[in-house]
Amino acid sequence: MMPINQLISLLQPENVQVDSFNFKLHSKVTVAILLLSSLLACHGQFFSEPIQCTDIPGVSKQVVDSYCWTHQIYLVTSKTAGHDGRDYAYPGVTAERSDVNDKRFLSYYPWVSLVLFLQALCFVLPNYLWKTILGDNISSLMQHNLKSSGSESVQRNIELDRLAKEWSNSRGAYGHLAVAYLACEALNLVNVVGQMFLIDRFLGHTFWTFGSDIIENSMMPAEVRVDVLSEVFPKMSKCSYWKYGPSGQIDQLDTLCNLPINFLNEKVYIVLWFWLVCLASMTTLYLAYLLTVILVPSLQIKIISSKLPRPANKDNVSFAVHSKKLNGVERLGDWLVLNMLFSNLDKWTNGQIVERMNQVLA
């Protein structure tokens, strides 16, 4: 598993930008949200009272709380529809014994903090794979003294010539980076959708419509409104405790349990639902944009030209970026690397680099 210090380092600002804004939404923003949520859930679980159950005669309250926390609590499904104080005391809670088929057991709550942390690792993985495959290809092309847009110097001209020659010698060598980049961006979409499936399974197949149900319920009149959150994150539940009676028989004793931890859990997953839906949508749009860039080579030239001083000579840009001797994947790789390089430099420097490239390639 990835060390914690590497995970934290991926959240810090980078000196050389080698990924897209979409990548940062996954590997930085989403990871930060998940780690913060995991810490909050961990605090609620280990540094407060996550569960509080009513007393059972002859049994320590601490034992009852621990038992119900580590074993499955449940709701009575036939008592989840209706209104508090009229149809039931609390949603999913009844005084009568219930058939096992009428019970919905809840077992997710002790694992929330761990699952959120593992999800954070999953969102780091595509970016980690991309940077591992990329290596130092961009940093080796970019020298620190090229960032300055000051006056001309002998050293600067030497570095510009070196970069232009290195580029001419390595044209067509970055095709595998284009394939890897597209694969990792696609993996971002697969991961976010997969995580939504995972959460849905983890919460008992209630996550997919979680946010939409909340929005729909909030628009209903108050007299017919139902507490949607109580069905997924109940604040009150039942727990069956088994013990030996005076004559050696096994007695089933039911207790009512309060779950303060679910006040936090419901807020965490509300935020996650809206964020993951937005993230999946933005990632889909970004992949559609990448597909358009791949299918329209002239768009690649426009993107590079936008990072040069105006007016940019598109013929010079096309000559530096696209070689007729290379196939489509190799040209895409050259464009990708040059686009990342220019994203780290100012327009004045980028313009000089294109001029030197044309001189060397001519």
Attribute tags:
single chain, 362 residues, mainly alpha, two-stranded antiparallel ribbon, 5 strands, elongated
Summarize model confidence as the mean pLDDT. 84
What is the strand tally? 5
Query: Approximately how much helix is present in the residues?
Result: 55-70%
Distance between the termini: 49 Å
Shape: elongated
What percent of residues are in strands? 5-15%
Q: Note poorly predicted spans.
A: none
What is the element string, with H for helices and E for strands?
HHEHEEHHHHHHEEHHHHH
Number of helices: 14
Main sheet record: 3 strands, antiparallel
Largest beta sheet: strand ordering: 1-5-4
Alpha-carbon Rg, integer: 29 Å
Count of discrete structural domains: 1
Class by alpha and beta content: mainly alpha
Summarize the entry for a quick read.
The protein is mainly alpha-helical and 362 residues long. The chain is built from 14 helices and five strands. The protein has one domain.
